Amino acid sequence: MSRFVGVEQAGSVGDGDVDGGASAGPVVTGPGGCFISIEGIDGAGKTSHVDALAERWRSRGLEVVRTREPGGTPLAEVLREQLLTREMDALSEALIVFAARRDHLVQVIEPALARGAVVLCDRFTDATFAYQGAGRGFDLNVLAQLETWVQAGRQPDLTFWFDLPPELAAQRRAAARDPDRFEQQAVDFFARVREGYRLRAQAEPQRFVCIDAALSRDDVAAQLAAALQVRGW
Ligand SMILES: Nc1ncnc2c1ncn2[C@@H]1O[C@H](COP(=O)(O)OP(=O)(O)OP(=O)(O)O)[C@@H](O)[C@H]1O
Ligand SMILES: [Mg+2]
Predict the structure, then answer these.
(1) Between these two residues, 30 and 173, which has the higher pLDDT value?
(2) Distance 176 CA to ligand 1 centre (A)
(3) pLDDT in tens, 113-137
(4) Are residues 63 and 115 in contact, defined by beta-carbon separation less than 8 angstroms?
(5) Domain for residue 167, yes or no?
(6) Which amino acid residue places its CA nearest to atom 6 of ligand 1?
(7) Domain range for residue 53?
(8) Which atom of ligand 1 is nearest to the CA of 48?
C-alpha cells in the first residue's frame, strides 16, 4: 500500500479547506494541477502505465500524487479490503464505495489539487457506474445522487478509458495472478462493465479519451502520450 502516495499523506493534509460537510464544494485547483483518472476492466493494463505517466510530470518538476480507488487513505483502504473480500448487497457496496471516495477526496485529492499537484487516480467514479451500476444492475439514479452529494462537483479533468474485449483481459489476468471477488465474475459481467464505461464515455466525450488497450504496451503508451500532447500536457 505504501506505493500509493495518498496513503502516506493521509492525516497530514486535508484538515482545513474541504472538510466542511457534505455540501462543501471542491477547492480551486492550483496552477499546474490536474486530476486524471484511469479506468477500464480488470486486467486492461491500467497500472502498467501509471509509472510512465507520473514520470512525465515529475521530470518537469511537478508534484505527482499517485492514488487509487477504492482506497487512497487508511480508512478507504480498509473499506477496499472489505469490498474485495466480503459478499454484500449492491446498495451496501455502493455506499461503502462512496464513503471511501469521500474520505479520499477530503484527505488526499482536493488538498493535492489545491497545491497544484497532478493527481493520477487508478479508477474513480466511472468505475462505480460501470461495476455497481452496469455490472451489478444497481440503480444508476441512486449512484448519480451519491456522486453529486459526495463529490460536490469534482470530476477528473481527463479520464483515460482502457478499452479491450473482456476475453483478452481475462487472459491477461489469468497469466498474472489469482482472482479477487470481482475478477472471479464471468466474462459476461465484464462485458456489462465495459458497456457501462462506454455509456459514461459517450455522455462526457470531452472528458474521456478511449485507449485501445488490446494493443501492445508500446502502442498503448503512444496513445496516452498523443492524447496528452494534444492537450498541451
Ligand atoms: N498492452 C499489453 N499487452 C499485453 N499484456 C499487457 C499489456 N498491458 C498490461 N499487460 C499485462 O496484463 C496484466 C494486467 O495488467 P495491469 O495490472 O496493468 O492491468 P490493470 O488494468 O491495472 O488491472 P486491475 O484492474 O486488475 O488492477 C499484467 O500482467 C500486465 O503485465
Ligand atoms: Mg491495476
Answers:
(1) 173
(2) 8
(3) 999 999 999 999 999 999 999 999 9
(4) yes
(5) yes
(6) 45
(7) 33-230
(8) 18
Q: Does 148 sit in the ligand 1 pocket, CB within 6 Å?
A: no
Buried/exposed code over 89-113 (b: 16+ C-beta within 10 A; e: otherwise)? eeeebbbbbbbbbbbbbbbbbbbbb
Among 143, 125, 110, 144, which residue's Cα sits nearest to residue 35? 110
The CB of 168 under 6 Å from ligand 1? The reply is: no
Note whether residue 77 is domain-resident.
Answer: yes
* Number of structural domains in the chain: 1
Q: What is the pLDDT of residues 169-189, one digit of tens each?
A: 999 998 887 767 766 778 999
Residue 201: count other Cβ atoms within 10 Å of its Cβ: 18
Residue 158 Cα to ligand 1 middle (Å): 21
Nearest CA to ligand 1 atom 8: 45
pLDDT tens digit sequence for 53-71: 999 999 999 999 999 999 9
The CA dihedral of 101, 103, 106, 108, to the nearest 10 degrees, is: -80
Q: What is the CATH number of the domain that holds 113?
A: 3.40.50.300
Measured at the alpha carbon of residue 129, what is the angle toward residues 202 and 66, in degrees to the nearest 5? 95
In a domain, residue 131? The reply is yes
**Other C-beta atoms lying within 10 Å of the C-beta of residue 51:** 12
Residue 14 lies in a domain: no
Please, which residues have CB less than 5 A from ligand 2, an ion? 46-47
